Amino acid sequence: MKTLPNILILEKNLLSDTSPWFVLLDVEITTGVYLYLVNNIDNITYNGQEYTAFPFQIGLDRQTSKGEIPTVQFRVCNINRVLQAYIEDYDGFIGNSITLRLVNSSYLTENYSQLTTTFEIVACVATAEWVMFDCGAPNPMRKRFPLYRYIGSHCNFTFKSVECAYQGADTTCDRTYAACALKRNSVRFGGYKGLVGGNVRVA
Amino acid sequence: MADFPTLSIPPIYPLKEKWGDDDQTIKSKTESGYIITRSRYTRNRKVFTVNYENITAADKALLDTFLDTVNGLTDYFTWVHPASGVSYTVRFDEIPEFSLTMYEGSSYYYSVEFTLREV
């Protein structure tokens, strides 16, 4: 059950409410870079971030009985082609996230974690009027698991990377334990010697 | 941003003014008869309906040129309310339609009505 701050519960239960509720979108263009949009006629600042007034619509959930992951469609205005260049440069943002927040304009400092949902963009279509993002829940099948491969005699780390930390004169490494020992860097060896036994084992 | 041209005569009255768009308020009627309302935006946008009657051909030419400047409904411009003197940033809500209403001597006169919507 969602537990909202009391002030928001009072606000949502009002028969007439003069402070509008806004939908905020954080559209991830590429890793760590976002577009911040609000469906208002003026920009607003939420959590120190300015959200740009921009027309967008949110479609209804699409759920089928065929076992498909439910999707929801976000339609963002494309009349002035602001998004067009971004979606062409970044492959339609496929696999990136859209975070949706519902906030009240009079209580922007309240906790809206219960009214925040993150979707993953699974498809993108652009027309002259709209850019349509089909979004679904993040797909766990796309997550890497287990996080690493555990190999006994082969180092996982890229040579001279942060994990490797080798700072000597050698320029190459075959990533074996023997090579690591020769470089006097075996304390940072990225393999799992305990697994050596002729096989690769996945933990 | 362009300014609405100053014509040789003022608009005729009444000059209609709406406080805002109808969709400024979201309404939902309940089964028990209560109506739940809330604001959609943080700011209302006024709508003005302006009429000019019997403007000269020169004034009409000014308006024609101005329509070219703002490209019809596309661009927004500054319009000054004739009574309050307040400047509003508006755009045409629909393309103004001129009517040739009078011929007197050697001059033609036109009437025009248009709606301006605050941006």
Account of the protein in words:
The complex is a heterodimer of chains A (203) and B (119). Chain A has 203 residues and is mainly beta. Chain A contains 3 helices and 10 strands, in the order H-E-E-E-E-E-E-E-H-E-E-E-H. Chain A has a 9-stranded mixed β-sheet. Chain A starts with 5 loop residues before the first helix and ends in a 21-residue tail after the last helix. The mean pLDDT of chain A is 87. Chain B is elongated and about 65 Å long. The longest helix of chain B has 14 residues. With 119 residues, chain B is mainly beta.
**Beta-strand content of chain B:** over 45%
Radius of gyration of chain A: 24 Å
Strand content of chain A: 25-35%
Largest sheet of chain B: 7 strands, mixed
Low-confidence stretches of chain B: none
SS class of chain B? mainly beta
Return residue spans of chain A where pLDDT drops below 50 for at least 5 consecutive residues.
none
Largest interface: A-B, 13 and 11 residues
First-last Cα distance of chain A: 36 Å
Structural class of chain A: mainly beta
Overall spatial form of chain B = elongated
Secondary-structure map:
The complex is a heterodimer of chains A (203) and B (119).
Chain A: H1 6-12, E1 16-17, E2 21-30, E3 33-38, E4 44-46, E5 49-53, E6 56-58, E7 71-77, H2 82-89, E8 97-104, E9 116-126, E10 130-136, H3 177-182
Chain B: E1 2-3, E2 12-18, E3 25-29, E4 35-39, E5 47-56, H1 57-70, E6 77-80, E7 87-92, E8 97-104, E9 107-118
Parallel strand pairs in B: 1-6
Antiparallel strand pairs in B: 2-5, 3-4, 5-9, 6-7, 7-9, 8-9
